[in-house]
């Protein structure tokens, strides 16, 4: 029987925790809520309370329904859902849908429809199709939200002016002139005051403003408008919360079956898509939060189950439909929440307010809530989203979806958006631009787009414009070529070369010859052994195509008279150089090799990259640079800042020198170049963070270790004297040695590399501009170590006196 008992590995570093032999066994673990969760719950509660009432008002539902949905969303969805920090409740994106259903079927039937939508969400969650919702084009989602925002804003404008909204946007717009002629000064003044506080409160200047901004602007706006309205004695319609004993619960819906099914599907669609996209957005916020704790990524299928359960409970209790709310979720993350306890506690606070604060809530003017919801609706039309869809050439999908939602309704608008998105996708698939031009005696045929049989006639016309015997370059700028296009191109190539012409066919991967589609997908060389070096299976540069353009491109064959001595054409050259790692196999050329590589790289940039980035670089040229980070690193060629930080033009202000050194301030340092860069970055560019990045195998650190104090004072030795404090710090046994997660430094060079990052951060703090920005909390300092051999980044964290470089995981970057 002992053979069935699993053996335990003895850990020499493990310490057993035992209790005295006569003491009772440990009791059950007590439920604890972290302080960060408590403060985050309070912040979210202060935002949720006025917004829940305002959304209920905008839908035409009983005002208690907004409080019920907020409480259920916090407690039920917060406990069951798969996104720990997403806050659910009544969402502005559901306002139009819910208002239409209430108008058609009544409030009790709307509650039943909410329950059915929750059951549908449970079914979708059990089928594990949550990821499928992310396949919806962002242009459709943003267009839907923009259309809902316009509808909300136009409807609430009537309440702001003291009137009553109509049932649709066209009706509201037609009634607007009459409403403007019949203004209610009291309602308008309260609304204007609410909007002014909403806009100005987040912009309070100075240190006092920074403290006051901790109070949510929505709460300040509603509370301030309420207090002034009460002090001035204004007679206005106010919040009316009847007794909970008279609260209406769900009832059986009555009406056409198809209409009820459409209402359930619409509610399910909007709730699900908004919640799932919100969960993905929360993951991004958490991953970008400095010092993010161990908050796991969202489980989207579980999130769908949680939202379904919340809608069932909310509808059963007479509440509004529930979905993830972006405003509350972002406030939860920014307030420092570390677990789902913050979301649940906010729901408990809403329950307490609904039971104990009714007399205070009934002082709130309806015009103030309407102004709050109108501001939320306006914010749903995001200029950032419009710029994004314009940049991706999807503005037509966005505009059609928005107009469809505004004019016809949410379901109809989304259906129109999907139809237009499919049409645009088909148009792009079948649209191929083929051009022919001649430059310096060489004919260029450029194919942009997918090369299918539909484009074969235009391809043939362009190829027949090339005269016999001419040199031709055919550039294929697309990701797909079907068999008909392949045969057309190959037949023309054979005919043209047989008549004395030359043909070079290149694709997105520069220097790779065209191949049969099956050969490319199998990873085999297309044209025999001589093309093996350029195949995907062999090329070591594949992850970074910009580098591949000059590292994996086979140089063109030179005429015999121009070939450098000692080189031959074809397979012999590959045998002599090894020719097995996918790099162009030629012997070193004494004249012009580096220059050729430079020209090839520049040519590839002008041909491939420049057309793609020209617009963004033109914008940066007009607006000037506004980088968020100063990145100070070593001049080592293996450390590529844009690659390891996934950054692009305008993102990083980079300073490079030998050893990533920061000379301390003072005239004795004898070098002001780094100090000038620091001053410019902090005081002119107003960067928000400075990163000092060291790396493994640093030659400067090796030179420091090997330095001879009595040696010649070369420029390199004079510069490296700024690294001697790092060497002294490493030799100080009273200080803990910096280490990587889970292990000590591999050798003295790595230990000095880590110590140097820590020491240079101290030098940074001594500079006046940096110290001033740190004092004003306008700047953060980061230490980074990049292990070249592992392609692994490590971020510096301080644990008391200990300095530990924590591994940056791939999962962290994907969040």
Automatic annotation (TrEMBL):
TM spans (from-to): 38-58, 105-127, 139-163, 183-202, 214-237, 257-282, 343-360, 366-383, 395-426
Annotated membrane topology: Multi-pass membrane protein
Region (Disordered): 1-29, 552-596
Membrane listed as a keyword: yes
Classification via SUPFAM superfamilies: beta-carbonic anhydrase, cab, SpoIIaa-like
Localization in the cell: Membrane
Domain SLC26A/SulP transporter: 36-400
InterPro entries registered for this protein in UniProt: Carbonic_anhydrase, Carbonic_anhydrase_sf, SLC26A/SulP_dom, SLC26A/SulP_fam, STAS_dom_sf
Keywords (A to Z) from UniProt: Membrane, Transmembrane, Transmembrane helix
Gene3D superfamilies attached to this UniProt entry: Carbonic anhydrase, STAS domain
Major subcellular location class: membrane
Compositional bias per record (Basic and acidic residues), positions renumbered to this chain: 10-19, 552-578
Domain of life: Bacteria
Family per similarity comment: Belongs to the beta-class carbonic anhydrase family.
Described purpose of this protein according to its UniProt entry: Catalyzes the reversible hydration of carbon dioxide to form bicarbonate.
Record-given protein name: Bifunctional SulP family inorganic anion transporter/carbonic anhydrase
High-level lineage: Bacteria, Bacillati, Actinomycetota, Actinomycetes, Kitasatosporales
């Amino acid at each position: 029987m002992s053979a069935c008992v699993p053996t335990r590995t003895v850990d020499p570093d493990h310490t057993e925790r035992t209790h005295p032999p006569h003491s009772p066994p440990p009791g059950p673990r007590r439920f604890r809520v972290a302080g960060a969760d408590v403060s985050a719950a309070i912040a979210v509660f202060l935002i949720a309370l006025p917004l829940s009432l305002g959304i209920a008002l905008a839908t035409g539902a009983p005002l208690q329904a907004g409080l019920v949905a907020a409480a259920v969303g916090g407690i039920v969805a917060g406990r069951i859902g798969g996104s720990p920090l997403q806050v659910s409740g009544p969402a502005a994106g559901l306002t139009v849908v819910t208002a239409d259903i209430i108008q058609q079927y009544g409030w009790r039937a709307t509650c039943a429809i909410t329950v059915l939508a929750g059951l549908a969400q449970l079914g979708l969650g059990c089928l594990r199709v949550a990821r499928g919702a992310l396949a919806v084009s962002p242009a459709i989602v943003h267009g839907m939200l923009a259309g809902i925002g316009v509808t909300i804003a136009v409807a609430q404008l009537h309440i702001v002016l003291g009137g009553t909204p109509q049932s649709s946007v066209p009706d509201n717009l037609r009634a607007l002139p009459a409403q403007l002629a019949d203004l209610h000064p009291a309602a308008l003044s309260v609304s204007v005051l609410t909007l002014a506080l909403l806009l100005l409160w987040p912009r309070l200047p100075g240190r006092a403003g920074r403290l006051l901004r901790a109070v949510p602007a929505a709460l300040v706006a509603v509370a301030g408008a309420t207090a002034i309205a009460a002090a001035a004695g204004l007679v206005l319609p106010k919040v009316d919360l009847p007794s909970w004993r008279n609260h209406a619960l769900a009832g059986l819906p009555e009406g056409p079956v198809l209409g009820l099914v459409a209402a359930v599907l619409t509610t399910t669609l909007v709730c699900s898509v908004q919640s799932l996209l919100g969960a993905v957005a929360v993951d991004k916020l958490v991953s970008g939060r400095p010092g993010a704790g161990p908050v796991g990524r969202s489980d989207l299928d579980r999130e769908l189950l949680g939202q379904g359960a919340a809608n069932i409970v909310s509808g059963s209790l007479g509440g509004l439909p529930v979905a993830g709310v972006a405003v509350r979720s972002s406030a939860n993350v920014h307030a420092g929440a570390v677990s789902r306890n913050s979301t649940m506690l906010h729901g408990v606070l809403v329950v307490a307010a609904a039971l104990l604060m009714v007399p205070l809530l009934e002082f709130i003017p309806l015009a103030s809530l309407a102004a709050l919801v109108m501001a939320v609706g306006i914010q749903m039309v995001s200029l950032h989203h419009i710029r994004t869809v314009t940049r991706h050439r999807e503005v037509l999908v966005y505009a059609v979806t928005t107009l469809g939602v505004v004019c016809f309704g949410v379901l109809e608008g989304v259906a129109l958006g999907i139809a237009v998105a499919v049409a645009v996708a088909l148009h792009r698939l079948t649209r191929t631009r083929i051009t022919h031009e001649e430059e310096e005696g060489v004919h260029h045929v450029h194919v942009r787009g997918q090369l299918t049989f539909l484009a074969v006639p235009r391809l043939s016309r362009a190829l027949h414009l090339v005269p016999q015997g001419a040199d031709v370059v055919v550039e294929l700028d697309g990701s797909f070529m079907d068999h008909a296009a392949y045969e057309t191109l190959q037949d023309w190539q054979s005919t043209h070369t047989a008549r004395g012409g030359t043909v070079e066919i290149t694709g997105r991967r520069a220097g790779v010859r065209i191949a049969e589609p099956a050969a490319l997908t199998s990873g085999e060389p297309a044209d025999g052994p001589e093309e093996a070096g350029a195949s995907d299976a062999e090329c070591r540069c594949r992850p970074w195509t910009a580098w591949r353009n000059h590292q994996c491109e086979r140089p063109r064959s030179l005429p015999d008279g121009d070939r450098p001595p000692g080189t031959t054409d074809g397979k012999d050259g590959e045998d002599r150089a090894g020719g097995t790692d996918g790099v162009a196999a030629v012997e070193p050329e004494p004249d012009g090799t580096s220059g050729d590589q430079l020209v090839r790289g520049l040519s590839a940039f002008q041909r491939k990259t420049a057309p793609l980035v020209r617009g963004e670089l033109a914008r940066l040229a007009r607006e000037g640079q506004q980088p968020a980070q100063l990145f100070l690193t070593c001049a080592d060629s293996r450390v590529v800042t844009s690659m390891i930080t996934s950054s692009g033009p305008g993102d990083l202000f980079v300073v490079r020198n030998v050893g990533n050194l920061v000379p301390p301030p003072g005239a004795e340092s004898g070098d002001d170049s780094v100090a000038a860069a620091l001053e410019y970055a902090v005081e002119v560019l107003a960067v928000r963070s400075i990163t000092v990045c060291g790396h493994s195998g640093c030659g400067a650190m090796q030179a420091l270790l090997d330095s001879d104090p009595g040696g010649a004072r070369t420029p390199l030795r004079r510069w490296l004297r700024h690294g001697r404090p790092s060497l002294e710090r490493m030799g100080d046994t009273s200080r803990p040695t910096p280490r990587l997660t889970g292990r000590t430094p591999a050798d003295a060079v790595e230990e000095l590399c880590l110590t140097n990052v820590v020491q240079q951060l101290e030098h940074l703090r001594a500079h006046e501009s940096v110290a001033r920005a740190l004092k004003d909390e306008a700047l953060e300092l980061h230490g980074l170590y990049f292990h070249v051999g592992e392609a692994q980044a490590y971020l510096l964290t301080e644990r008391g006196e200990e300095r530990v470089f924590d591994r940056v995981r791939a999962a962290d970057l994907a969040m």
